[in-house]
Amino acid sequence: MIYDLIVVGGGPAGTSAAITAVRNGARVLILERGIFPRHKVCGEFVSAESLDLLARLLLSQQSRLLQEAVRIAGARFYIDGRVLHTTIIPPAASIARLDLDAALWDSAQHDGVDTRQRITVQGVVGMGPFRVITTSGDFETRALVNASGRWSNLSPRPATNGRRTEKWLGLKAHFVENAPQASVDLYFFEGGYCGVQPVNPGTQSAGQENTRQQRVNASAMVRADVASTLPQVFACHPALHERSRKWQPLSDPVSTSPLTFLNPEPVRNGILMAGDAVAFVDPFVGDGISLALRSGRLAAECLVPFFRGVMPLPEAARAYSAFYRQRLAPVFRTSSRIRRMMGLPPLLRKPLLSVLEKTPSVTEYLVRKTR
Ligand SMILES: Cc1cc2nc3c(=O)[nH]c(=O)nc-3n(C[C@H](O)[C@H](O)[C@H](O)COP(=O)(O)OP(=O)(O)OC[C@H]3O[C@@H](n4cnc5c(N)ncnc54)[C@H](O)[C@@H]3O)c2cc1C
Fold first, then answer.
1. CA separation (Å) from 274 to 129, 215, 279?
2. For residue 290, how far is its CA from the centre of ligand 1 (angstroms)?
3. Is the whole model's pTM more than 0.85, yes or no?
């Protein structure tokens, strides 16, 4: 059996590509090394730009996931002793990855994608057609989408040229908090930040945890020499420390590392990359899931003429690369500018923050530019 498309990785990017391709008549196999449902390090902020797409990807019986999601209509930035407020228009949704990723996986399976878990892709031979080498044997395919995430065995390692580079970690867990505000709160400190937002338990959480209590998700990106556990992160910011004192853990903490920012590369050796496999966008812009869903769909849409035999694979790949750079890449430039601004020495950052505090419209403009 030769597939039209094999997708590596069953996260938002991979399932979005697989569902789009199968709905366009392609024979699709998706390979995932893990098993769903599972917690994932993430702020769980799903930006409004991709909520319509998400609704179309999910099955109608999964619509409760979106209907019951907490809507996040505001953000508070706690930085250098100030609190900057901004509105988020239209509001984002807060959806636990435990529920979101499992729902997308089920939807792919329901639509006719050949879905296989606990299979790790070890290598790829060819530049179209491809032989995909896995822990469960080899598979043949005409086209390949690599949606294996930020740091997989299939991604090239960034060149360090012998330099010592900073190591960054991602950490996350759910906690009980009474009556949390429908806001994403970002607490910045030297060497990292932590986001906190309310999240509703979905059907997967219902099987695993006490779902009656109101909860928040706390997720941090932090330099490894600053903190390696969530309590250590909470201690880095006085307001967060105070807030977290009343929290009770609802899920085991999960962590991930390293976190590195590279330039987006949408196509490699004839393989269409999607989601974090293209490049990792700084989590504080809350756009990683949206970029994953949109790039997965875009990759599959660009492959449709190839599946139908009216376009060669290299041309479909070039079209994807051009669309990606035009429609999705600008967010990487904005987020790296904001990251540089946040990384300024406090003395230089102070006047900038003072402007933002006095003119919320500028903060709103910056938030819009990350969309
Ligand atoms: C601290 C932190 C906070 C974040 N907060 C947010 C947020 O609030 N909002 C937001 O939008 N984004 C956020 N993100 C980013 C977001 O989590 C990612 O952008 C998103 O998960 C990317 O989806 P993906 O499908 O590309 O990759 P993933 O979700 O990582 O999925 C990749 C899948 O591929 C599988 N895989 C890997 N290698 C192989 C292999 N060789 N064979 C088979 N399977 C393989 C993995 O098991 C995984 O399931 C955050 C990230 C971090 C680190």
1. 19, 31, 9
2. 11
3. yes
Q: Which secondary structure element, helix H or strand E, spans residue 248, and what is its range?
A: strand 248-249
Residue labelled with tokens 């853990």: 249
Is the bond preceding residue 90 a cis peptide, omega within 30 degrees? yes
Rg (CA), the chain: 21
HSE on the CB side for 343, CA within 13 Å?
9
Domain boundaries in the chain? Answer: 2-39+96-156+260-335
Residue 123, beta-bridge partner list: 133
User: What single letter denotes the amino acid at residue 329?
Assistant: A
Supply the DSSP string of 186-235, one letter for each residue: EEEETTEEEEEEE-B--HHHHHHS--SS-EEEEEEEEETTT-SSHHHHHT
CA-nearest residue, atom 29 of ligand 1 = 11
DSSP conformational letter for 40:
-
CA distances in angstroms from 31 to 96, 107, 259, 333, listed in the order given: 22, 15, 23, 31
Tokens of 25: 């008549």
The Cα-based distances of 308 to 61, 132, 174, 296, 325 in angstroms read: 31, 22, 45, 19, 25
121-141, pLDDT tens digit by residue? Answer: 999 999 999 999 999 999 999
Q: Is 288 in the pocket of ligand 1 (CB under 6 A)?
A: yes
Dump pLDDT digits (tens) for 71-83: 999 999 999 899 9
- Residue 14 in contact with ligand 1 by CB distance below 6 A: yes
CATH 3.90.1150.10 describes domain 2-39+96-156+260-335 = no
Q: How far apart are CA 329 and CA 263, in angstroms?
A: 9
